Structure prediction request, 186 residues.
Amino acid sequence: ILEEVIGYFKSVDAGVDLFLPRLFISGKYIELGDVSSALDTRLDLLAWSRETNYPVMIAWSRWNLALALLASGDLEAAAAQTHEAFDQMVFDGYLEGIASGAEVIAIIEIDRGRTERGLQILGACESIWESIGTVHWPEAEFHVKRVLETVRREAEEAQLAVHLETGRQMSTAELIDLVQAALVAQ
Prediction:
């Protein structure tokens, strides 16, 4: 199996080796306010991922494109990319991917004023992050902090805590159902 996997990745012209550096560079574009260059880079990464025909890589490329689309303010396109990524992560049973996709949907929900559902999704994601011990992708963490600050300005801290805690008590299956409901509502 190892030889097959190594052979496969060698056949994609070391694209995997270039994926993360290009992803980090595109994140720096966003930090510098050059969202257009970030979008171009992430669209290129998605095109490359499609050429590899490796579903998880395609899903992560879509998710990263969604983050850049959030930075551009295009919630509709971000939701569409995240929907595709989330469905693949659920299909694969990939917990980190499920939480990552759900988190972006939560951000979009809160940006659209559907705060209660968004906070519940974020609470469930926090629970997953703690259980698997994975670090947040900085760009996603930025958006989470941004929407939480907005909610804190507009609502009481107690309300925020209740909704987050409701989410923290959810099973992964309940989280998936809640995200699917949010996707249908979009």
About this structure: The chain has a mean pLDDT of 90. The CA atoms of residues 12 and 51 lie 8 Å apart. The two ends are 41 Å apart (CA to CA). The domain at 2-185 is CATH 1.25.40.10 (Serine Threonine Protein Phosphatase 5, Tetratricopeptide repeat).
